[in-house]
Design brief:
This protein has 256 residues and is α/β, with parallel strands linked by helices. The chain is 35% helix and 11% strand. The protein has nine helices and seven strands. Strands 2-1-3-4-5 form a five-stranded parallel beta sheet, sandwiched between helices. A two-stranded antiparallel sheet has the order 6-7. This is SGNH hydrolase-type esterase domain-containing protein.
């Protein structure tokens, strides 16, 4: 563990989380916005569903850890919502079981500390035509429909309302973009850079609007080693220095 200790923001989920640091991903955006303020920690697992996550949630988030996360962003549901396979194998999880799994995950995270905050991301839509077009010859048919995605998204949002958790309704948020099917996804399922920007914006909006104390909005958090120094850049007058610790103009407007 390197120091000084910073607040931890953990991203826990399936492939949309695992891939969130690549190609302008939303995890990378959060890491940039929270630079010198919080550590963004990735715990993403390609192909996982809520049942698989529930098996390991206590290992990923042990109750006896010396430091507990300040915020956990959780995403499971896309793989759960796939149509069931005739063999009963595969990632599909029945809707009622999915809700129960997510409730158990939430309860565990709530038990970590009184100051650990939680945001759930609901199941996003898919580009059904592209999903069918990209079928792999090495896999059984993958059936993903927006009817199924919506039912799992709605269930996640309803659960969060029941538990008093913050939630980003990705199913609705991504469809607000013009031509969302082609703009938001690379393969009909996984996020493009533009799709990731929308996800990051929604997460930052929720964090800003949440009545958490202390606030976890990036503007409200202290910047590490922000004191003035004679080693700062020299100002135009040639006599003083300019502290660049709070220079955020390059993302100020976009990530307000």
């Amino acid at each position: 563990m390197v120091g000084p200790s910073r607040p931890q923001i953990v991203l826990f989920g399936s492939s949309i989380v695992q891939m969130s640091f690549g190609h302008g991903g939303w995890g990378a955006i959060l890491s940039e916005v929270y630079a010198r303020k919080a550590d963004i920690i990735l715990r993403g697992y390609y192909g996982w569903n809520s049942s698989r996550a529930l098996e390991v949630v206590e290992k990923v988030f042990p109750k006896d850890a010396a430091v507990q996360p300040s915020l956990v962003v959780v995403y499971f549901g896309g793989n759960d919502s796939m149509a069931p396979h005739s063999s009963a194998l595969g990632p599909h999880v029945p809707l009622t079981e999915y809700v129960e799994n997510m409730k158990k995950i939430a309860r565990h995270l709530q038990s970590l500390s009184e100051s650990t905050r939680i945001i759930f991301l609901s199941c996003p839509p898919v580009d059904e035509a592209k999903v069918r077009q990209n079928q792999s010859p090495y896999l059984s048919e993958v059936i993903r429909t927006n009817e199924l995605c919506k039912s799992y998204s709605d269930a996640c949002v309803e659960l969060c309302q029941e538990l008093g958790l913050q939630v980003v309704d990705l199913f609705s948020a991504l469809q607000k973009a013009d031509d969302w099917e082609t703009v938001c996804f690379t393969d009909g399922i996984h996020l493009s850079a533009q799709g990731s920007k929308l996800v990051a914006a929604e997460i930052l909006r929720v964090v800003k609007e949440a009545e958490w104390k202390p606030s976890l909005h990036w503007k409200s958090m202290p910047t590490e080693f922000a004191e003035d120094s004679p080693f700062d850049l020299v100002s135009a007058d040639g006599k003083t220095t300019v502290n660049s610790a709070e220079w955020t103009y390059f993302w100020e407007e976009q990530w307000e």
